[in-house]
Amino acid sequence: MSSRGDHQTVPLSVLLRREQNSEKVENPEIIYGQFNQSKKGEDFTFVKTECQRIVGDGVTTFSVFGLLDGHNGTAAAIYAKEHLLSNVLNAIPSDLNRDDWVAALPRALVAGFVKTDKDFLAKGLRILVVVWYDTMIGEFCGQASGTTVTFVIIEGWFVTVASVGDSQCVFESSEGDVYCLSADHRLETNEEERERVTASGGEVGRLNTGGGTEIGPLRCWPGGLCLSRSVGDRDVGEFIVPVPYVKQVRLSSAGGRLIISSDGVWDMLSFEAAVDCCRGMSPEAAAAHIVKEAVQIKGLRDDTTCIVVDIIPPEKNLPAVPPQKKGGKGVFKSIFRKKATDSTSRPDREYMEPDVIEEMFEEGSANLSERLDTKYPLCNMFKLFMCAICQVEIKPGEGISIHSGSSNRKTRPWDGPFLCQGCQEKREAMEGKRSSGDKYSSGSD
């Protein structure tokens, strides 16, 4: 991690030129549609297309799309829908220019996801008590409720996706290439997550029906959840974490189409099949068609939800995705052009290539000391006496460095960012450094 003295002062003239160049790039038009067929009523969507970075200016707008697939009840999904965006935005300093605001998003999304999970579990500590024949029975409100979250923020031509669980987001470029922008956190398919869970104290296995017969997907015990990451889920261990996988890309000025769907779609359709079946349709018609295509295969077995977002170049009314694929296109791609090290110094070249998707950021580690590190050039991302996760004020001397207990010799226990006591306890439990028992300690703030 860079020390405080390593940060270089950027001349005001450079900052002004960057902002001016940034504003010269016209923002795309955002058109969306969504559709749902409900089995349990546990899927929720969040759509807000006129968010403002600078309140009141009417210019610095961005769009947010979220899909929340709840399980064991709706409480976690509803709570995340109502609070996640504000928790993310509260973790971003208010005085950043556009480029730095976009650069701050990946860290802020991590902080926002963890805070949403922590606050939801704390809220659930309210206990319903029933007395029956001198026996007290306590029940945590919504203790088993959890949710997947796929959260998409579009700022200009930058798309940032944060995800926990098995809802997925894919992007089709104007040339018909398909890219996945999210992660699959099912234990059945993610070997790296299985290793992390077991290393943190969880057990992974299939449901045993007796006599050695095992059925169903791999699950984490205790709790029996088949996902390694989620928001909520009090009845599982802390090793089921809310830390999201985050990918940020910069699109070409040709635009493209995003498809955000719950597992009700992806269990039935491949990425390519979902993209192909709706090409040339409006976003509203495309979302409905994808859901119907998925449901008709084996019937409505699960809540099945889809959001389709077209990102269209300015002054173009045609769909961002062409009705027919060009020869040789349409195959799934997992490789992006990596961000150029000197890209910020060449704003005039940002959109010269007609259909190049540039990866700006990707990280999926569940380790908070890695995810909240401040190696990128934003000196003021975390205020010195504020918890990096929950944003509560910390008195001098009470904050705990995210590097506390680290074996990395390049970091020191007094280097920030800092956590409050409650967030530090949560971090230790997620990393298997203390017994989790309940997923939330009543001693945490």
* Main pleated-sheet profile: 8 strands, mixed
User: What structural class do the secondary elements suggest?
Assistant: alpha+beta
The percent range for strand residues is 25-35%
Oligomer: single chain
Q: Any idea what the shape is?
A: globular
Tally of individual helices = 9
Distance between the termini: 29 Å
Compute the CA-based radius of gyration.
22 Å
List low-confidence stretches. Answer: 1-8, 126-141, 326-330, 341-354, 376-380, 440-445
Mean pLDDT: 80
Helix/strand order, N-terminal first: HEEEHHEEEEEEHEEEEEHHHEEEEHEEH
Textual characterization of the structure:
With 445 residues, this protein is of the alpha+beta class. 24% of the residues lie in helices and 27% in strands. It contains 9 helices and 20 strands. It has helices spanning 12-24, 75-90, 98-123, 191-199, 263-266, 271-277, 283-298, 368-371, 421-430, and strands at residues 29-37, 43-52, 61-71, 127-132, 135-140, 146-155, 158-164, 168-173, 178-180, 203-208, 214-221, 231-232, 245-250, 256-261, 304-312, 332-333, 337-338, 358-363, 400-401, 418-419. The longest helix is centred in the first third of the chain and has 26 residues, at 98-123.
